[in-house]
TrEMBL record:
<dbReference type="InterPro" id="IPR045851">
    <property type="entry name" value="AMP-bd_C_sf"/>
</dbReference>
<dbReference type="GO" id="GO:0006631">
    <property type="term" value="P:fatty acid metabolic process"/>
</dbReference>
<protein>
    <submittedName>
        <fullName>Acyl-CoA synthetase (AMP-forming)/AMP-acid ligase II</fullName>
    </submittedName>
</protein>
<dbReference type="InterPro" id="IPR025110">
    <property type="entry name" value="AMP-bd_C"/>
</dbReference>
<dbReference type="InterPro" id="IPR020845">
    <property type="entry name" value="AMP-binding_CS"/>
</dbReference>
<feature type="domain" description="AMP-binding enzyme C-terminal">
    <location>
        <begin position="379"/>
        <end position="444"/>
    </location>
</feature>
<dbReference type="Pfam" id="PF13193">
    <property type="entry name" value="AMP-binding_C"/>
</dbReference>
<dbReference type="InterPro" id="IPR000873">
    <property type="entry name" value="AMP-dep_synth/lig_dom"/>
</dbReference>
<dbReference type="GO" id="GO:0031956">
    <property type="term" value="F:medium-chain fatty acid-CoA ligase activity"/>
</dbReference>
<keyword id="KW-0436">Ligase</keyword>
<dbReference type="InterPro" id="IPR042099">
    <property type="entry name" value="ANL_N_sf"/>
</dbReference>
<feature type="domain" description="AMP-dependent synthetase/ligase">
    <location>
        <begin position="28"/>
        <end position="316"/>
    </location>
</feature>
<dbReference type="Pfam" id="PF00501">
    <property type="entry name" value="AMP-binding"/>
</dbReference>
<comment type="similarity">
    <text>Belongs to the ATP-dependent AMP-binding enzyme family.</text>
</comment>
Amino acid sequence: MPTHSDKYLEEQIQKILSVPRYPEKYYTLQGYTYGEVYQMSLEFASLFSSMDHGDRPICLCAKNKAVIAASLLAALFDGPPLLLPYSHSINVLSEMHDSTGFRFAVSDTDMALPEGVEVIIPELGQLPAKRLLKVETDPDRQWLMLYTGGSTGTPRIWSKTVSNLLSEALYQSRKHHFSPADILVSTVSPYHIYGLLFSILVPLVSSACVIDEICAFPNEIITAIQQHSATILIGVPIHYRALRDHPITGNSLNMAFSSTGALAEEDGSDFFRQNGVGIIEIYGSTETGGIASRCRSKGETGFTVFDDIKWKIKDQRLYIRSGFISPEIKTDKNGFYKTDDRVMPEGENGFVILGRSDAVIKVAGKRVDMEEIRDKLRKIAGVRDSVVISIFIGKGRENAIAAVIEGSPDKAELRKALSSLLEPYAIPRVIRIVDQIPSTPSGKHDREAIEQMFRAEFYGLR
């Protein structure tokens, strides 16, 4: 199936900007209807067009998914790009304000904002619900600005065009047969690309219903699914890990998704065994959008590349050409982008991930794959999860390996097991055992917090 043409996208944009198919149907369950979301989008569009934003983005700080959806529709119709923060703390918002100069922020709660920023609050009912005027929307126009999560250094901002996001939302909706009968529960913030696509945009283009709350704890997730007869769960690996040994009785689910990181095979197997639903793993990133998927309960060990994406493997590196990737990404003369992952082909249209290219370091002149160490750690009794990092020490280019382990392994047995599994130079020099590995709001391991755990220990290593 070829990438969507501009003509197709223009047709879909006009449909999205029209009166919704089911105006009385809830967009957010027991919250806002589709008709109210569209009415709100008219109000935002009117406000956006009257503002002196100076071609600067408008910061989107709302928490309600309906308000987020209405803001997106308004910006799609006629407005500046929306800036989505990776955190709503005043420190982060102030840093974003200094770098982008935004003057306005959409908010539905009382929150601290940088000095001089004007708050835009929706006032439902000020304008009649009607069809938006037909407009010519450039599919390549910048629509949103998103940040990487900040778990691996300074957060970076990425642009997303109308084509980037709507092409993927339409593709995912069609591929997985989302429908108006579906009710979605999400454990990930809509300010993360995965949460934005699957809990805001895919419901919007498929007329599905989404539960407004973001559920993070097992009891919250299970209660939301049971009380609202949810049919789709949008989760992340850390939450599927937390759901182990927590069956969902009276289960109405027929699909479950996972992204933002590698899902442990045993967590997926346990979820399928307890609930009869295989987890569809989405592989991609903020800057690339979705690339491929797999469902291991169906026997899929490798990832199958999405129909809309061209790909190739060279020297164990994955290259993609995709309409989902951000315009800032540098590609070769043929439009291919080299990802950070090492892969090998599997079957006619798939690949197996070997690890990240930046996960291989040298210790004492020897090559060490930290993902391989992590995989071996997780096979040791009492280890639920682990993260392995390298830290530069001394004045030269020497690396030291450290590992944080989630679980309750016996320390003596742990060291004995490592001695049999790893070469001496690959054994982590410092190991911390914790009840839970620090994570970001999107469910990824918080590498900055993990590195902080080891800094004191490594100050003495010279």
